[in-house]
Design goal:
The chain has three domains: 8-110, no CATH class; 134-267, Alpha-Beta Plaits (2-Layer Sandwich), CATH 3.30.70; 273-363, Arc Repressor Mutant, subunit A (Orthogonal Bundle). Strands 1, 2, 3, 4, 5 and 6 form a six-stranded mixed β-sheet that branches. The protein starts with 13 loop residues before the first helix and ends in a 7-residue tail after the last helix. The chain is of the alpha+beta class and 370 residues long. The model is unreliable at 71-76 (pLDDT under 50). It contains 14 helices and six strands. Helices cover 61% and strands 8% of the residues. Residues 301-356 form the PucR C-terminal helix-turn-helix domain.
């Protein structure tokens, strides 16, 4: 696409500068360079590219060249060469000053855009703005908040920031595949965050995002955890999904959940358990409290319950995970039954034991007192 021509208004006092240089052979003065920098900055703010701006000045130089004062050029070839050299030096300096001003304006625009984007992201994830105003701002960043959205949060072995190679690589690939609408990639508190539009497109975006962040590359390991919140409607839905993803990361850290992909929809039992701390404490104390009488304390037996549940109560697999023999595992299960009165072989009683074991891990028991 052809860029628009820069108006002659942006030439300022360029003709006067060149005329004076041709007459005296001097360098451009500081006030003249400041004027050129300001013109470059104004051109950038008006939306004109640096190329067309330089083209305007080179075209003006060519137009003026034959009409510049001839007294110096007429005094001999050497004087003419000196004049030409002074003029070319002035043009080179002028172009450099224009570029500095243009770049200065672009840097400022980038900083302002980054600040606006960061403010929007904070308001979006924390729900700190009027929803109507937030929806208007969201359009600028490719989101339509009237739709449903889901949020994925990535925790890596090292903190993420906006210039991290993984962030830039994933952003390029997502934009190339899905475009700049219905997906927002950002970082927050050292984590990588992806907000995706709902329904089928959301699932495709988050699947692609999850696959990309798990891939090692450029000297970086893959993601440690990828937590995905559920899909919720509206601007408030983004906040809800983000909080669910953060909650999943917290659970993964506290409970050592298998990963690296955690879906909030698969972890709904944990918010239920945490909602009534008193009831959960009573459950753990009543069901698992007797395990403290075992030799070695409750820890090994509680670990055995968790390993059996993770292994689907296949004793050989649970023993392998615990790095013990099957006979030792069977002995521990028998001790659990004897001490608690709950049989891991009975479906209902096993559910009670597993729920109590989950509650114990959430409470940090037996390391922390109930």
């Amino acid at each position: 696409m052809r860029q628009p021509r820069v108006p002659d208004d942006f030439l300022g006092g360029y003709e006067r500068m060149l005329t004076d240089v041709a007459e005296t052979g001097r360098l451009l003065l500081r006030p003249e360079l400041d004027e050129l920098r300001d013109l470059g900055e104004r051109a950038a703010e008006a939306g004109y590219g640096l190329g067309p701006l330089i083209g305007l000045y080179l075209g003006e130089t060519r137009r003026l060249w034959g009409s510049l004062p001839g007294a110096v050029r007429a005094s001999g070839a050497s004087a003419s060469a000196r004049t030409a050299d002074a003029l070319l030096g002035a043009v080179d300096t002028a172009v450099g000053a224009l570029g500095e001003g243009h770049e200065r304006a672009q840097r400022l625009a980038v900083r302002q855009e980054e600040a606006a984007r960061r403010e929007f992201v904070d308001d979006l994830l924390y729900g700190r703005s009027d929803l109507g105003r937030l929806a208007e701002r969201a359009e600028r960043f490719g989101l339509r908040l009237a739709r449903s959205h889901a949020v994925a949060v990535v925790e890596g072995e090292e903190p993420y920031d906006d210039v991290h190679p993984v962030v830039r690589r994933v952003e390029r690939e997502l934009i190339a595949r899905f475009g700049e609408h219905d997906v927002l990639l950002t970082t927050k508190e050292g984590r990588l965050v992806c907000v995706a539009a709902g329904e089928e497109r959301e699932r495709a975006i988050l699947d692609a995002f999850t696959n990309r962040v798990r891939e090692p590359g450029s000297g970086h390991t893959g993601a440690r955890w990828v937590a995905i919140g559920r899909e919720h409607p509206g601007a408030g839905g983004v906040v809800s999904s983000y909080e669910e993803a953060l909650g999943a990361l917290e659970l993964a850290d506290r409970l050592g959940l298998p990963g690296p992909v955690l879906r909030a929809a698969d972890l709904l039992v944990f918010p239920v358990l945490r909602r009534d701390r008193a009831a959960m404490t009573d459950l753990v104390r009543t069901v698992l409290g007797p395990l403290t009488r075992a030799r070695g304390g409750a820890g090994p037996l509680l670990e055995t319950l968790s390993a059996c549940a993770a292994a689907g109560y296949v004793n050989a697999e649970a023993a392998r995970r615990l790095n013990i023999g099957v006979r030792t595992l069977s002995y521990r299960l028998e001790r659990i039954k004897t001490l608690t009165g709950y049989d891991p072989g009975d479906a209902l009683q096993r559910f009670t034991l597993e729920t109590a074991a989950m509650g114990a891990r959430l409470l940090g028991w037996p390391g922390s007192p109930l």
